[in-house]
UniProtKB/TrEMBL annotation:
The keyword Oxidoreductase applies. Residues 1-142 form the NADPH-dependent FMN reductase-like domain. It comes from Caryophanon tenue. It comes from the Bacteria. Keywords: Flavoprotein, FMN, Oxidoreductase. GO terms for molecular function: oxidoreductase activity. This is NADH-dependent FMN reductase. It holds the Pfam family FMN_red.
Length: 183
């Protein structure tokens, strides 16, 4: 199973730390998974404006299409997901993620910004018909030290539980045939 961990920002380090941690937990529950981090900060982004896509955007789309499951990490800026993440969703073909497991981790400046997951990320992933885990992990600045290490034990426990449920979703999805009708 190919699992794509998507670091959906070009700024900061906390989302990357969350994904590196969740990668360890996923491998604890199934060491056979091929887990890869796709860091948006390493890509040359372009806005979806009708012009031909550059090689980095073609590569990004191919990674989404080839993956069997996803963990999305997003910072919350101005009570919203970053523009590069939304732009990426706009580029992905609607059936690319259909019936594939997905989980969400996010980081924001306040405790209230966890609602962005409920009101923005989940509806987008529902549009793609992904199998979104019922649990997600939201963190804020107090959960990290100055070196961007997670210092909150509850966050570690929630990341472990997210990985456990995500791996169970991955295993269940292996027998789910992708629907061939247009939607």
């Amino acid at each position: 199973m190919k699992v794509l961990l998507v670091d959906g920002t070009i700024f900061g380090r906390k989302t990357g730390v969350l994904l590196e941690t969740i990668e360890q937990h996923i491998k604890k529950y199934n060491a056979e998974y091929d887990v890869q981090i796709l860091s948006f900060s390493k890509l040359q982004h372009q806005i979806l404006d009708g012009s031909p896509l550059n090689d980095d955007m073609k590569y990004m789309i191919q990674q989404f299409e080839k993956a069997d499951a996803y963990v999305f990490a997003s910072p919350i800026f101005q009570a919203s997901i970053p523009g590069v993440l939304k732009n990426a969703f706009d580029m992905i073909p609607p059936k690319a993620m259909r019936y594939k497991p997905a989980a969400i981790v996010a980081n924001g400046g306040t405790t209230q910004h966890h609602l962005v997951i409920e009101h923005q990320l989940k509806p987008i992933l529902d549009y793609f018909r992904t199998l979104v885990t019922p649990n997600y992990v939201y963190t804020h600045g107090a959960h990290f030290n100055e070196q961007n290490e997670i210092i909150d034990e509850d966050v570690h426990a929630r990341l472990d539980e997210l990985a456990r449920v995500f791996v169970a979703y991955c295993e269940m999805s292996k027998n789910l045939a992708v629907e061939k009708v247009e939607a």
